[in-house]
């Protein structure tokens, strides 16, 4: 796109990068500067008029016009006029004037008339970082069919959006756009966004392009892999055979068996090395134990802050926390990151860099390992489809076994019943998790904090453990609780991946304050081994449609859609705006079909 210096400056001021994005800055209203021969009351209208008299008082100016297009006299009124306004009205002159017309008992007035030179058109009005007249000229001179075509937009979409900027009929306000216009705006918004995403994707030579088969290994497992696990593994198998470094995100619901996909990937990478980074020692340890159990014949090592300096090049599969970032790592064919959203982009890149190399033979081309990231935060299917513009995505939406969890919204008057339930679960050797919104007391939040509530539980129950995000002993507390505890009091820190096989009940205090996907993650901590599970959402609100909807579904992907409906999606590109609205027109919960058509058209553009 070749822009002149002046165009570039305006793009910068408007915060846009393309003609497509310019077309999305649509008018907020329109002025009908065409001449009509019929008087319309209570409407802004243009008159072709001769000034017959001008009368000035302390706070206003009254002008008598003769409107030739109506054959009727009209009184113009200017309140608190500025000096320059006077020059627009010379007795005896004939010009075009525009203003709001009102008529009472046969007498018509035009409030705040102004002289107009560009009559004959419907003129759009813009609110933008540019002055209104500058913006109008910029659009009129630059927003052309040709410019939009150069960016790859389809003709019917271009025609539809140009109607908004160059109308031949007076449109209603933007609040009442017809569905064709709205769909065109959605299409362009997605088109420019996904195009931008696809340019973020860069391709590197892979450090290895072969993969062993996983099927013999899968036969050794004491259970059968689900169809979706197999489908994700097959996607990865194809990735590993390419000479371009893979970039794939595997999104699986809580308990969907992502660990098996991780292990299958390490098996397929043999005899090359694989590295896996997990966000916590507990999780790294859990993955290490599962790897030892299910792939016993390969050399596996666990790296945490406490690991002595050992030569990692002797091992086939290196599992660790971010302690890996500070070690000498051997070259690996595959790098995996579990719970990728818990690491910053910088940390993920650093891990990749540690095991990348420069291929001198190939003119110093950067050679990178295949890269897989795993996430247990389900994303709506539409979002997954958008993400595929810059990374490949595999979804695992089903779980290996059906969880039996009853969810229910509870209030203050249900407390005695809740206590009875907790006592009964503990007597059955099950564990209970109580999640509080804060560690310390707060004036703003009407729920108890951990500090205020713990006394009650510690006085009335034995084996009560307490932890939270700032607790340095957090991992030790969780470990000890899993062996000896009855009740764990925590903040949302327990959200990620720790396995507590005896945990049957979670009580979330102030549940309406959390996003549905966080509630789903917390609920996913119970019933990990087929135990009957319970999730209680405690709220002081009398009713909550959002929480009631949450109790009716256990699928993380359905919940991600509900979350969208109630909170709106965050920004995928910057990853910062978690619950604000990234798109002005697109609704990720509703617009799957438009995403599909944009995706298809973008693929066709590349070919």
Automatic annotation (TrEMBL):
Domain Helicase ATP-binding: 239-396
GO biological process: DNA repair
Keywords recorded for this protein, A-Z: ATP-binding, DNA damage, DNA repair, DNA-binding, Helicase, Hydrolase, Nucleotide-binding
Entry annotated with the keyword ATP-binding: yes
Membrane-crossing residue ranges in chain numbering: none
Cited SMART domains: DEXDc (SM00487), HELICc (SM00490)
Xref: InterPro entries: DEAD/DEAH_box_helicase_dom, Helicase_ATP-bd, Helicase_C-like, P-loop_NTPase, RecG/Mfd
GO MF term (any one): DNA helicase activity
Domain Helicase C-terminal: 414-570
Protein name according to UniProt: ATP-dependent DNA helicase RecG
Gene: recG
């Amino acid at each position: 796109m070749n822009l002149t210096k002046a165009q570039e400056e305006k793009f910068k001021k408007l915060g846009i990068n393309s003609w497509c994005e310019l077309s999305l800055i649509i008018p907020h209203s329109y002025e009908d500067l065409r001449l009509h021969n019929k008087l319309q009351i209570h409407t802004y209208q243009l008159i072709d008029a001769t000034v017959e008299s001008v009368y000035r008082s302390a706070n206003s100016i009254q002008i008598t016009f003769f409107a030739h297009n109506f054959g009727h006299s009209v009184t113009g009124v200017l309140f608190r006029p500025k000096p320059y306004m006077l020059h627009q009205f010379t007795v005896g002159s004939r010009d075009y004037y525009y203003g709001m017309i009102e008529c009472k008992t046969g007498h018509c007035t035009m409030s705040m008339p102004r002289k107009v030179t560009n009559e004959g058109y419907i003129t759009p009005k813009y609110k933008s970082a540019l002055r209104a007249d500058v913006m109008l000229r910029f659009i009129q001179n630059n927003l052309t069919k040709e410019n939009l075509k150069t960016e790859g937009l389809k003709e019917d979409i271009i025609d539809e959006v140009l109607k908004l900027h160059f109308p031949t009929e007076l449109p209603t306000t933007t609040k009442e756009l017809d569905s064709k216009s709205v769909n065109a705006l959605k299409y362009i918004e997605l088109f420019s966004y996904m195009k931008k995403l696809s340019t973020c994707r860069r391709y590197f030579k892979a450090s290895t392009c072969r993969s062993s088969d996983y099927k013999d290994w899968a036969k050794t497992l004491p259970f059968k892999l689900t169809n979706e696990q197999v489908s994700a593994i097959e996607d990865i198998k194809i990735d590993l055979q390419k000479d371009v470094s893979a970039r794939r995100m595997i999104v699986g619901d809580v308990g969907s068996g992502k660990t098996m996909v991780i292990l299958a990937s390490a098996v397929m990478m043999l005899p090359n090395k694989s590295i896996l980074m997990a966000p916590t020692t507990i999780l790294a340890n859990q993955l290490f134990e599962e790897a030892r159990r299910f792939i016993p014949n390969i050399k596996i090592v666990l790296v945490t802050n406490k690991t002595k300096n050992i030569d990692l090049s002797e091992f086939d599969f290196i599992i660790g926390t971010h302690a890996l970032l500070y070690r000498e790592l051997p070259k690996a064919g595959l790098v995996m990151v579990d719970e990728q959203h818990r690491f910053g982009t910088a940390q993920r890149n650093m891990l990749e860099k540690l095991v990348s190399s420069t291929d001198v033979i190939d003119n110093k081309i950067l050679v990178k390992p295949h890269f897989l990231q795993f996430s247990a935060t389900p994303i709506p299917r539409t979002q997954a489809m958008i993400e595929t513009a810059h990374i490949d995505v595999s979804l695992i939406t089903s779980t290996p076994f059906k969880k039996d969890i009853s969810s229910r919204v509870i209030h203050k008057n249900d407390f005695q019943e809740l206590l009875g339930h907790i006592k009964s679960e503990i007597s059955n050797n099950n564990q209970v998790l109580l999640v509080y919104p804060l560690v310390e007391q707060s004036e703003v939040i009407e729920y108890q904090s951990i500090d205020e509530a713990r006394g009650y539980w510690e006085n009335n129950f034995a084996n009560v453990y307490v932890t939270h995000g700032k607790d340095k002993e957090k991992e030790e507390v969780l470990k000890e609780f899993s062996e000896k505890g009855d009740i764990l009091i925590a903040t949302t820190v327990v959200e990620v991946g720790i396995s507590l096989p005896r945990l049957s009940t979670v009580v979330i205090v102030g549940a309406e304050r959390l996003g549905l996907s966080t509630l789903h993650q917390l609920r996913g901590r119970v019933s990990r081994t087929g135990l009957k599970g319970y999730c209680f959402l405690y709220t002081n609100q009398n009713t909550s449609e959002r929480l009631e909807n949450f109790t009716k579904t256990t699928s993380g992907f359905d919940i991600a859609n509900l979350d969208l409906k109630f909170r709106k999606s965050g920004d995928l590109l910057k990853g910062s705006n978690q619950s604000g609205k990234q798109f002005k027109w697109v609704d990720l919960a509703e617009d799957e079909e438009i995403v599909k058509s944009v995706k298809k058209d973008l693929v066709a553009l590349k070919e």
